[in-house]
Task: structure prediction
Amino acid sequence: MRGPATKRFATRGRVRRYLTAVAGAGLLLPLAGCGGDAGADGGKTVTVTVGYQSKTINTVTAGTLLRSLGYFERALGELGKRDGVTYKVDWQDYATGAPITAQMMAGKVDIGSMGDYPLLINAARGKQMKAPTKLVSVTGYNLRGGLNMVVTKPDSTLSSLADLRGKKVSTSVGSAADGTLVRALQKAGIDADKDLHKLNQQPAVGASALQSGGADALSQFVAWPGLLVFQGKAKPLYDGAALDVPTLHGVTVRAAFAGQRSAVVDAFLTAQLQATKYLHEHPLAAAQQVAKATGLPPEVVYLYNGSGGIATFDPTLKPQLLNALKQDVPVLASAKLVDSVDVDGFTDDRYLRRVYGAGYAEALASTANPVPVTGTDPVCGGRANDPATASESWLSGEDRTTAFTTPSCLLRYVKQHPGKVRAGYVPDALTGTRWFANTSVWAEDPAAAPNARFQPFTTPANARDWIAGHPGTRLVSYDAALRESP
Result:
């Protein structure tokens, strides 16, 4: 069944043109030098401070992966040869975007990456403090909002947002996940301030509160929902993609810094493009690299950042994403976190356009994931080329994945390889959100063709909505779906 979230498929030609543009980006660094402090040898030394969130893994092309690949340092080294400046990079790791903004306002962080709501707060604080910032690129995004989720304990009896009335829900106020929670509750007719007890906590604190019983549910951003579910510590209650509002993370720079050191901003964005290219060309290796740097399970990183992952990595500042930011402003204003934000004034794509080159307009117009799940299905035959159904497995001991045309075909493969599947990935039949096969909610359609008999969902609510429109279907457990697969 084709879901509304993934109707378009990236052509090989578009991907090749994108990668060609990125490969040439390193040649586009401006020759102008920038100032700095005099070093002991009489030369100039400039330290560029980058604030990032290592475990917010859809920012990796401007953070964890970029740092591990060394592309920014390499670009600055080339720049330094031309302008006689020694550049150093100070990478500062934070759990959320708020402290990055605080450090930027103090002039202590030059470049930062954060989610959509924190970006808007960043813009508002910059205007308020007369220290303006600029949004210069996107890292990862999901057009439907699937990067954020509400989860509960595995044995929880909560099955919908309506069940949260009177409950304690942990989130990070002002974060992308908080925005999703507020919007989803509003859509369900629930007042986030009056109808439940919202706890303002850092992600790790909220995760602990969920385990201890201090919170009944946790609303958080990538990669916390996937991590907790993978560890068997949570189950999804609400899929952010059900909201159908884009969510994104992006790169913001201090305007004063960009004005004084535009060549450094260009170097950073060139390096980000190169890191994005690396992730596109080596999705599994990139996931393993990020996992090693962060301590996150590679299976979780690959869920979000892999082929057909929940996050689409594309640095262009798409109109759909900027419009989503504009829609987010009233939510933050109602929470008294901002007065107003001029999103158009905050956005500055001059630097990215300059380093990207001729392919920018085409990339800007595309919303297809540049790295879809592809391959020949070893069970059902044919090519896995429909993002609404393409599924994937990762066997233990292997550094490659196997693609399947449908989730039902993946189930047969898992049945044929008992105990050997490291992770199976399937798209939610309603929202398109990619999720773990063994923790998905499954429905059976006895009247469907064998290859479409079983349909997966991230949450019971999604499954119920789908079943309501498909008479004769029923819920089944994952184990039952495996047993009944031919």
